[in-house]
Amino acid sequence: MAALFDYDENREAASAAKVRALEALLIKKGVLGSDSVDAVLSHFETVAGPFNGARIVARAWLDSAYKRRLLDDTPKAIAELNFPGMNGAEGEHMKAVANSESVHNLVICTLCSCYPWPVLGLPPYWYKDPVFRSRGVREPRAVLREFGVPISADKEVKVWDSSAQIRWFVIPERPAHSEHLNEAQLAALVTPEAMMGVALVPSPSAA
Ligand code: FE
Asked: Is the whole-model pTM more than 0.85?
C-alpha cells in the first residue's frame, strides 16, 4: 500500500477530529439534530454493510443455482435473502461478478467513488483516491500486486468501473479447505476488500 498511497500516519485521526468539530458546529447551529449522526452510523453498522455482501457471497459459494441467479439478476437474487435496507441510497443497479480460475475482477470508480453501500457499506478512503482510480485502470496488475494480490499472467484481469448506472461487487473465489464450514463461518471469512477485488479470501487452514 505504501507505494500506492502516501498519506500521513495520523490521517484517520485528523479526519475524525475534523468531523467531530464539524458535527458539533452543525448541531450548535441547529443544522443537525444531536442524534442525526448516530442514526446514520447505526444504519451502517446494522442495516447496510459488508456483512450483507459476505452473506451473499457465502450463499453463492454453497448454492451454485443461487450463484447463477446472482450473476444473472443481482438485485433479484439479493432480494431473496430479505435483508432490510437494500433499496437504500446507492443500492440501485448493483451487479455481481465472480472471480474464477481464469478471471480476477477489480472494482473501481474512475469518476468519483460509486460503491454498493447496502452490500459493502461505505467505501474506504483510498477508493476515492485519484491515484487508485487512475492506476486501477492503467495498470491493474501492478496495483493488485501492491495490494498483495499478484495475478499470474495466464489469468485475465477485468476492471469494472462503478457508476450511478451500475455498482459492481466481486464474488471472490471460495478458499481451499473450507468444505467443513457452514454459511455463517464462510461469511466470516469474506472481507469488503475481497468483494472489491483487492484481496483474496484466505484459506481457513492458513489462519
Ligand atoms: Fe462514483
From this structure: yes
